[in-house]
């Protein structure tokens, strides 16, 4: 093992060098975002030569995708548990999901906006996990389960309801990027009421 590689792993945490590189990149993403983040900056922070990264990742895009996933998982770990189907009220559970989604999107937005000009990274990120792992999929699963339990109407369009809640999160958070188009967001209770009760007379 090269001396610089050995120095990078003198942490006693049992991580492989690949894991160390992902963790280092995730720390940089969390602290500085992804705009202008270079292989050299990651390598220096990790304590390895630039070329070492290519021994463990096919390219910079693969490393950044893994770092993004680690960043999202790290943020999710601070947001608490999501409600279980059949427990508590629908209103409270959807409110918890909405707050979770808002907090998640606010926390990860800086990292993703820096990658708008790098679609390859975003594509790699999307390929890392199968369906069911992200918040949107868990929200869909929750609503479907509530429908199966009979707490939502038999014909409830749960995927559409989930898309509305996800859209509220996107619209609210993305408005921060375009303050000239920002407007007052609907009240949380009004959002939940609209999803559960609709808007017809």
TrEMBL record:
DNA-binding positions are: 38-57
Could you tell me which SUPFAM superfamilies the record lists for this protein? Homeodomain-like (SSF46689), Tetracyclin repressor-like, C-terminal domain (SSF48498)
Keyword hit for Transcription:
yes
InterPro entries referenced in this protein's UniProt entry, alphabetically: Homeodomain-like_sf, HTH-type_TetR-like_transc_reg, HTH_TetR, Tet_transcr_reg_TetR-rel_C_sf
Ranges for the HTH tetR-type domain? 15-75
Classification via Gene3D superfamilies: Tetracycline Repressor, domain 2
Q: Which UniProt keywords apply?
A: DNA-binding, Transcription, Transcription regulation
Q: Where do the coiled-coil regions begin and end?
A: none
Pfam families noted in UniProt: TetR_N
Name the record gives this protein: TetR/AcrR family transcriptional regulator
Organism for this UniProt entry = Streptomyces monticola
């Amino acid at each position: 093992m090269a001396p610089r590689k050995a120095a990078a792993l003198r942490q006693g945490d049992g991580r492989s060098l690949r894991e160390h590189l992902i963790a280092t990149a995730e720390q940089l993403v969390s602290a500085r975002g992804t705009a202008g983040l270079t292989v050299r900056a990651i390598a220096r922070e990790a304590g390895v030569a630039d070329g070492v990264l290519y021994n463990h990742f096919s390219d910079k895009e693969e490393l950044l995708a893994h770092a993004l996933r680690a960043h999202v998982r790290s943020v999710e770990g601070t947001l608490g548990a999501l409600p279980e189907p059949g427990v508590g009220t629908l209103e409270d559970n959807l409110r918890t999901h909405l707050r979770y989604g808002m907090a998640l999107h606010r926390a990860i937005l800086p990292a993703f906006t820096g990658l708008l000009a790098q679609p390859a990274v975003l594509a790699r990120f999307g390929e890392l996990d199968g369906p069911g792992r992200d918040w949107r999929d868990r929200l869909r699963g929750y609503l479907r389960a509530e429908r199966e339990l009979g707490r939502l109407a038999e014909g409830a369009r749960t995927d559409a309801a989930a898309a509305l809640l996800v859209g509220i999160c996107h619209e609210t958070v993305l408005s921060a990027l375009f303050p000239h188009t920002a407007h007052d967001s609907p009240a949380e209770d009004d959002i939940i009421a609209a999803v559960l009760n609709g808007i017809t007379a």
